[in-house]
Amino acid sequence: VAVRTLERYNLPRTDRGAHDRFMEQYPPDTDTLNLWDVAVEGMMQYSSNAASDYLLDRLAPINWEPLYQRLSITETDYPHSLTLIPLLMNNHQDRLANLDDVAEMSSAQGERYLDLYIDNAVWREEEIAYRERRGRTFPDWDVQAAILETHTAHGTVSDFLTLLNAIYGAGGPLSPRLQAMVRDALRWDDNAFLDAHYVEFGSKLGSYSGGTLTLVAYGEPINGRPVISATFLRNIPRETYFAMLSDDSIGNFAHWMNFNACVGINSLFGIG
Fold it and tell me: Residue 206's closest CA among 15, 8, 7, 9?
């Protein structure tokens, strides 16, 4: 993968510096990256929006329907680029969005903005300059939440548990080789705590301002029972959301569920 091409997908100040941290692993004069590294390290481990959007474009055109049928995914929308979201929320052409704008937006409009950012040199330069001189790049919290609810992909915990079963279970729709590749991408390596407690632990956090927070995980504790978990949260108040990110509350909860095989979860939440 040409670094110059990958960098065209990087919209500054939109992924909390994830893409920049990914690229800091490499010498400044690096010209190319291994495609596997872009997928596993860039997209999965560092959560680089640029890596994710580049890979989605590289795969296009994609017929998602046969894959969804094979995996028995029935209530989850097809993937779209991540960078269309901040471009819908704010860009140099339309400026900062408000609630009155949400009804007129569409994901297709966001994709067009991303195409302009990647392919139109003048539009790109104006967008970068606009973001560099603005103190605030995202709209009010309720506007962010409305855009996420109305114009981004939705999914269900049930579908993601089905997908995790396909990745980690035996005799499912994925070949053993493909299962091994995905498990490698999700696996946490070189973590002293996890190495001391788990045969294998893999997870992926998804977060987006506006009160959306998700995490899927697989854990096989040493001498324990393997557990898969999927946690989807939305409409989290702003202060609570940032506190949860800072404390890694959702990561700790996933560890608790996997390590304890969810025993006692009802009493934890006062159920039953």
Answer: 15
- Helix (H), strand (E), coil (C) string for the chain: CEHHHHHCCCCCCCCCCHHHHHHCCCCCCCCECCHHHHHHHHHHHCCCHHHHHHHHHHHCCCCHHHHHHHHCCCCCCCCCCCCHHHHHHCCCCCCCCCHHHHCCCCHHHHHHHHHHHHHCHHHHHHHHHHHHHCCCCCCCHHHHHHHHHHHCCCCCHHHHHHHHHHHHCCCCCCCHHHHHHHHHHHECCCCHHHHHHEEEEEEEEEEECCCEEEEEEEEEECCCCCEEEEEEECCCCHHHHHHHHHHCHHHHHHHHHHHCCCCCHHHHCCCC
Amino acid in the structure at residue 39: A
Q: What is the pTM of this model?
A: 0.91
Place of tokens 């490499």: 26
Q: Which range has highest mean pLDDT (125-139, 151-165, 244-258)? A: 151-165
Strand 212-221 to 198-208 pairing: antiparallel
- pLDDT tens for 216-271 read 999 999 998 899 999 999 889 999 999 998 998 888 888 888 888 888 888 877 87
Omega into 176 within 30° of 0, i.e. cis?
A: no
Please measure the distance between the N-terminal and C-terminal CA atoms of the chain and give it in whole angstroms.
Answer: 53
